[in-house]
Each structure stands twice: as structure tokens, then as C-alpha cells.
Amino acid sequence: MLKPQHELVPEIQGLRAVAVLAVLFYHIWPWILPGGYVGVDVFFVISGYLITGSLLKEAEGSGRINIGAFYARRIRRLLPAATVVSLAVALAIPLFPKGQWADLANSIVASALYVQNWFLAAEAVNYLADDAKGPMNHFWSLSVEEQYYILWPLILMPVLHFARWSALSPRASFGWFVGLIGLGSLAYSVWLTPVTPGVAYFVTTTRAWELALGGALAVIPVRHFIASSMRAVLGGVGLLAIVLACVVYSDQTSFPGYAATLPTLGAAAVILASGAHVPLSAGRILNTRAFQYLGDISYSLYLWHWPVIVIYETVVGRAVGLRSGVAVFAASLALAHLSKVFVEDPFRSARLSLGRTFLVGAASIAITVIAGASYLVRDALEPTPIASSDKPRGALAMKDAGYDWRKEDPLRIVPRPEKVNADVPFAYRDRCQQTVEGTEVLVCHYGNPDSGTKVVMIGNSHATHWFPAFEDIVRTQPIYFRGIAKSACIFSLEPVYDTGLKRPYTECAEWSKNVIEWLSRERPDVVLISHSSGSNKVTQEKLIATWRPLLEMGLDVRHVRNIPWLPSHPGKCLEGSKNWMTDCLPSRKKVLREDNLFMVAKTLNVKILDFSEYFCDNTHCPVMIGGVLVYRDSHHMTATYSRTLSGPLQEKLALTAPSRATEVRQNQ
């Protein structure tokens, strides 16, 4: 048996309990601890302290680091329980709508390979990403730690060689290196968090400093020079800092960045205070039997709680409440106890050779990957049905006097509800839609540049979902169409506060300015504006100030009215509903309104292209029309339905003669 290289400190075990309780309360009852997610940061500090301390002790004792033995300990400690939870989630996938199976399978594979944090970081900046809860999403923090466990000893080995060459002690060499890594990562985190908070939250490079902070505590023997009375105060202040972050922080807090220093320094203070056996010390709380027990099962409790929450909400169809949360908490606790007793402990104490340990690790990863990939293979091999040919197709059906959308069959529509998320415009594949970070004007080109009529459409994804209709139009009409869109951006010269970025969206305002300059150079015949209204994010006055320069240039500006905005994802609703007309049929009055864009167009006397008649009748806005699923989510058209609107779009554009912009361009 390979012995651990460090002794367990009771206060640290109790601190683990604080961390996992913070995360559990945040996930189950977020209104109680809106900042409970900082428990993950406490875990990072603990891991950095224990792992760096273990490696330093070995380096000082033997002059080397046994990589194989270190990895073997990590495998036996982490992989068995993680594998059991992952396989349980894989078995539970059929409980979810089919449309989520591919995402869940990808998440299982990413978690098994410990790259879940990078997978979520990519999704965080992908405007098409589904925002549904995934039962494996919490593996992102485990991925960060596992990457640390893999890379840290490999990095410290050359540092140890440098120590021998430079006559520095291993402790001094480790200290300098940990400090440089920590400061560099902290600086990067502070810079990246306000720029792209979704990426900053998940990536390893913005979290490395938290692990390095724990490592610094192990390398620099500050604790031995602090009096017991001062350590008691330090521990209490540390606990209060963690609790304060849990209570004061929320999803609106720009995190990690500067904000992460409060809970991490709090965790560091508690670790420094360990061993202070005086009244009113943090140890008096952390060393109690309850906290020690929760700390002992904290790993399994963290693993199980999130899948239990997500599966409960999926099966029951509603969020966890106050009373149901107690049941979820109890179930998570029971599963964690069983996992600790029957999975963690037996594998950790097993007398396995290095070779067998690595074989167990490889088998665990392989089994989990296969379990996830099997759903991907099944999804790829499953044929896609075609829509019935005996009824009108798509939007044109709404103009058929004999058409009755009530007779639509969810089993005979395209795209299939479970695959609707993939039915997107080619603009995303071609990467001609600007990302959140960019400000350059990217252009999607369709048709012949020498065509007589030049049409430009600007906006965000609410403009992009019209592009497939133009792709069809340019095949038969002398029109050169260019699409200019930026993700999540409201076309406005004034920065609008973005809840995702947690700051004013300055890149959007800069992009809008660049678009106006581009239009002044290009002088297209028609400029179409279509983007999400932004609710109360932007005022009509700011929109008017942005649109007016286009009118002053003499451009033919037109507004394409927004399509209905549904209360939920129709594809998921259709999958889980026994009666779609009862569960998945939005009321026109609730989902189709005159938003601020519509009012600005009326104020400026801008022509409005209104296609509401192709989405709604007098009372309802059906999610299936003419054998086609209309929406790919709650507020974007499927590319398939967009193409069926090419005829109505061409008719409403009525491009029969050159516009004034064409005459101006020809006279220049």
C-alpha cells in the first residue's frame, strides 16, 4: 500500500465541510446563500496546500518526487467514486429529453477526461449554447484540480533540479515558483473576468492562483511564528470572510477576479490558524463531530448532490423548493455516505501495485467515455424522418385557407425536436458572425456582388436567423445580400449593461459605431435592422440616436419585426408533452408584442416588415407550422423554417427599382 505523504489536519477536514455545505446550500436554496459557489474556491486552497505540502515533504526527505506513486494515490482517491457517479448519470440519461442526450453525453466524456471546465468555458462564449442544467457540470472544478494534480509535480520536478543546481533549498525554490505562478494567474484572472466572465469562471489559468495560494501556505512556514491567541483571531476572521462572501456575493458578482480573494484569503487564514487550541478559535467549530463527518464525506457529497438536484428537477418538472430541498439534501447525504464507505475507502486502502492502480484508472476512464460515447453513436445512427408531403410546407401553410395547424403531428415534423438545436444558419459554421469580444465588422456574403440590388441586414442573432431565407432568395433573384451580426449585441452607440458580462457591453457599442462607418462607405440599397429588443436595457432615445445617422445618409432603412418570444424551449416541451396543444401552445397576446424597436421604427417613420401572420393566427402562435418546427429555442427560428419564408420576405422587400442609395452610389 502506498502511504499518504501528509497527515490530516482536523481544521482542514472541518474546512472541507464548510466548503461543501456552502456549495450545497447555493445549489439547493440559492436565496439563502447566493454566494455559496465560493465553496469551490475554498476547496482549491485546501488542495493547493495539501498537494504542495506533500510534494515538498517528499522532495526534502528523499531529494526527489516519485511521480508514479503520487499519481497512484490520486487515482485511488478520486477515480472510483467519480466513475460511479458518472456511470449513474449515464444510466439516467433516458430520463432527459432526447434533445439533451448529445450534450449530456459530451459532458460525461469531457468529465471523464477531466476537461469539463474547458468544455463549459467554450459553451459560455457560444451564443447558441443550451443553458439547461447538466448533471455533470459540477465536474468543472474537479477538472481544474485534476489538471493541477497531473501538471504540478511535473512542473515542480525541474524546479527541484534547479534547486540542486543553484544551491537553493527545495523549499525556497518551490516558494519562488509558487509565488510567480500565483501572481501571474491572479493578474490574468483580474484582467479576464470583466472581459469574458464566462470563460474566466471556468478556465484553469484564472484559478491556478487559488491553488498556488494554498501551496504558498505549505511552503512558507508562517504558521509556526504566529502566537496561538493570534491564530485564534485569524481563524475566526477567516471563517467570517468565507461566510461573508457566501451571503454578500451573488450571480451578479464579477467572479473570480478580485472578488475571489475574500473567500480564498479566508480559507488561507483558517489553515494558518489550525492547531490553535484556545477558546473561541475556529477549531472549536471545525473540530466538532458533525463538521469532521461532513468533511470526511465532502468529496462524495460534492459528486452526488448536483446530479440528484438536476435529475429531481427533470423528473418532477419543477425547481427544488424549500421542503423538497430537504429531501434532496438527505438523498445526497445518504449517497455520499454509501459512496464513502463502499467505494472511496476500499479503493484507498487497497493493496494494489502501481501497475494495477494505473490499470484501474485507465479502465475507469475508458468505461465512462464508452458510456457517454454510446449515446453519441446512437444519436448519429438514428435516421431523421421527413415531413409529410401531403400538406403545405412551413410558413406558406399559414396562407392556405384550408390549413389547420391543430392537425400537426410532432412525430412528422422537421427538424426533429431532439435535434432542433443543430438547425442553425450557416453563418455560425462560417464564423462570419462577430463574437462577444470582437468589434470588427464581419460580413456574411450571399449572392453575386455585381447584382443590381445590394441588401444589408444588421443586428444580433435575431438578424442571423433570417440569413437562410436570403440564401434561398439570392439563388433566383439579382440580389447581393450581406449579413452583419454580433452575438448578444443590441445595435446601439451607447454601451448597454449586459447581465452575462456583468458590466457595460462596450464592445457592442464600438461594433455599432464601426457598422455605421462601414455603411457610410458601402452605401447599400437597403439596410434591414433586426435584433432582440433588449427589454429595458436600451431606451428608445438611444436607439433613435443610433438609427438617425443612417437616415441622414439617405439610406433606405427598414425594420424587420421580431418574431414571438416564447416562455420556454418548444423542442423540449414537445418531447416531454403528451398533449402539445395544452402544454406547448403560446398565446399570441403573451408572446408577440410591440417592443421598443417596433416603436422606434414607427417614430422615425421607418418601413416595418412584419411577418407575424406567418407565425401566429388571431389567438395563438403554434410551434409547428406546415410540417416544420418553427423555433430552435424560445426566440430563434430554425433555419428550416427561415428558408420557407424566402418567398414572403422577397414579396415584402418589393425590390423592383433601384433605391436612392443606388443612385447616389452611381453618381459618385
UniProtKB/TrEMBL annotation:
<feature type="transmembrane region" description="Helical">
    <location>
        <begin position="174"/>
        <end position="193"/>
    </location>
</feature>
<feature type="transmembrane region" description="Helical">
    <location>
        <begin position="77"/>
        <end position="96"/>
    </location>
</feature>
<feature type="transmembrane region" description="Helical">
    <location>
        <begin position="12"/>
        <end position="29"/>
    </location>
</feature>
<keyword id="KW-0812">Transmembrane</keyword>
<dbReference type="GO" id="GO:0016020">
    <property type="term" value="C:membrane"/>
</dbReference>
<dbReference type="GO" id="GO:0016747">
    <property type="term" value="F:acyltransferase activity, transferring groups other than amino-acyl groups"/>
</dbReference>
<feature type="transmembrane region" description="Helical">
    <location>
        <begin position="232"/>
        <end position="250"/>
    </location>
</feature>
<feature type="transmembrane region" description="Helical">
    <location>
        <begin position="35"/>
        <end position="56"/>
    </location>
</feature>
<feature type="transmembrane region" description="Helical">
    <location>
        <begin position="149"/>
        <end position="167"/>
    </location>
</feature>
<dbReference type="Pfam" id="PF19040">
    <property type="entry name" value="SGNH"/>
</dbReference>
<feature type="transmembrane region" description="Helical">
    <location>
        <begin position="199"/>
        <end position="220"/>
    </location>
</feature>
<keyword id="KW-0472">Membrane</keyword>
<dbReference type="GO" id="GO:0009103">
    <property type="term" value="P:lipopolysaccharide biosynthetic process"/>
</dbReference>
<feature type="domain" description="SGNH">
    <location>
        <begin position="431"/>
        <end position="646"/>
    </location>
</feature>
<feature type="transmembrane region" description="Helical">
    <location>
        <begin position="256"/>
        <end position="278"/>
    </location>
</feature>
<dbReference type="InterPro" id="IPR043968">
    <property type="entry name" value="SGNH"/>
</dbReference>
<protein>
    <submittedName>
        <fullName>Peptidoglycan/LPS O-acetylase OafA/YrhL</fullName>
    </submittedName>
</protein>
<keyword id="KW-1133">Transmembrane helix</keyword>
<feature type="transmembrane region" description="Helical">
    <location>
        <begin position="355"/>
        <end position="377"/>
    </location>
</feature>
<dbReference type="Pfam" id="PF01757">
    <property type="entry name" value="Acyl_transf_3"/>
</dbReference>
<feature type="domain" description="Acyltransferase 3">
    <location>
        <begin position="11"/>
        <end position="336"/>
    </location>
</feature>
<dbReference type="InterPro" id="IPR002656">
    <property type="entry name" value="Acyl_transf_3_dom"/>
</dbReference>
<dbReference type="InterPro" id="IPR050879">
    <property type="entry name" value="Acyltransferase_3"/>
</dbReference>
